[in-house]
Design a protein that fits this description.
Structural class: mainly alpha
Number of helices: 12
Strand order of the largest sheet: 3-2-7
Radius of gyration: 46 Å
CATH topology of one domain: Serine Threonine Protein Phosphatase 5, Tetratricopeptide repeat
Order of helices and strands: HHHHHHHHHHEHEEHEEEE
Helix content: 40-55%
CATH class of one domain: Mainly Alpha
Number of strands: 7
Distance between the termini: 132 Å
Largest sheet: 3 strands, antiparallel
């Protein structure tokens, strides 16, 4: 029996560890497994969420364009400089008509650049040169746009005036109003350049006179600048004055030349339109469904009144002449100023007659 008990205990001793190995993992194996899973998770996170520049070696080329810099050139830079021009080219005719009508209702006739009715209708003609709707709309817009260009010239915004004139040239390059506007723009620019040059010359002359007066002033002379002869003359005793005769002859001072009359100084500007011409439509022309224009030449006198109004040209002849002259005579102006003085000026205006209200 003792031998049997010993064998039984040995069997029990050997049977316990085998049962643990087969039935459950050991704690050391669990730690190894958790460590492997943790390393795999960390590697997966690093691969998915690593920074852009974390790869070693040369970075592979990608298809993404580099960020634009202030000095960049090329199509991307051009698109940033002129987004409105690019947008006009991408719109179809229906979209351009819709944008043009919206611009008209919001009174965006010629500005802002790229988002005005004039440029929308010009873009329609670029796509469809024979589009009569755009042609008629540009004809109606022409007098308003030319008036806006003249207003920009009068206010000194020459770049904006040149932009509007260039657009009008695309709409009707043979219109005589463009010649008048360009001449006025060139004259104003040249006059301002002359005035600026005169002001700079006057400032330089004044500075030169100030410097010369400071140099010639006795207070500006220092003791170090005195010559030995001048120093000896100052140190020598003054001689006794000689007795003068009873009547001393004193030289008569030279007569100074009279000062030149001062030139008038003041503002110089062109005629300003206070109330534009608003012609009435002749009843006979309304019944006959006639449209046309009249070109009027007139003088704005120094007191602002309209004088010598006459018809230079008209189409059709003599249909709208009377109403055009009456509209110009009823308009009000501020006269042209030359150095602050009002002067008379001769002007030309084209008065449009359109049944659609242009």
């Amino acid at each position: 029996m003792p031998g049997t008990k010993g064998n039984g205990s040995r069997a029990a001793g050997t049977g316990g560890p085998r049962a643990r190995v087969r039935g459950a993992a050991s704690p050391k194996g669990l730690l190894v497994l958790l460590l492997v899973l943790g390393l795999a998770a960390a590697a997966a996170w690093w691969f998915l969420f690593r920074p852009q520049g974390a790869t070693t070696g040369a970075a592979p080329a990608t298809g993404r364009p580099a960020a634009s810099t202030p000095g960049a050139s090329g199509p991307a830079a051009d698109a940033e400089v002129e987004p409105d021009a690019a947008a006009l080219g991408e719109l179809d005719v229906n979209d351009l008509y819709r944008e043009a009508r919206k611009a008209m209702s919001e009174n965006r006739l010629v500005s802002p650049p790229g988002k005005n009715a004039l440029e929308y209708y010009l873009a329609i003609l670029q796509k469809q040169p024979d589009d009569t709707g755009a042609v008629d709309a540009l004809r109606e817009l022409f007098p308003f746009a030319s008036g806006s260009a003249e207003e920009q010239i009068n206010t000194g915004d020459y770049n904006e005036a040149a932009r509007i004139i260039d657009l009008l040239a695309k709409a009707d390059s043979s219109n005589y109003t463009l010649t008048i506007l360009r001449s006025k723009l060139d004259a104003r620019r040249k006059r301002e350049e002359r005035e600026q040059a005169l002001q700079e010359a006057a400032a330089a002359a004044a500075a030169a006179r100030t410097a010369a007066a400071a140099t010639a002033s006795p207070a500006a002379r220092t003791p170090e600048a005195e010559t030995p002869a001048e120093a000896a003359a100052q140190a020598a005793p003054e001689p006794e004055p000689a007795r003068a005769p009873a009547v001393a002859s004193t030289p008569r001072p030279a007569t100074a030349a009279p000062p030149a009359p001062a030139q008038p100084v003041g503002e110089t500007r062109d005629v300003r339109v206070l109330t534009p011409p608003r012609p009435s439509y002749p009843p006979n022309a309304v019944r006959a469904r006639q449209e046309g224009w009249v070109e009027i030449e007139f003088t704005v006198a120094a007191d602002g009144s309209v004088q010598n109004a006459r018809v230079v040209d008209s189409q059709p002849a003599r249909v709208f002449d009377r109403e055009a002259i009456r509209a110009v005579q009823q308009a009000t102006f501020e006269p042209r100023l030359e150095r602050g003085q009002p002067v008379s000026t001769t002007l030309r205006r084209r008065i449009q007659f359109s049944l659609s209200g242009g």
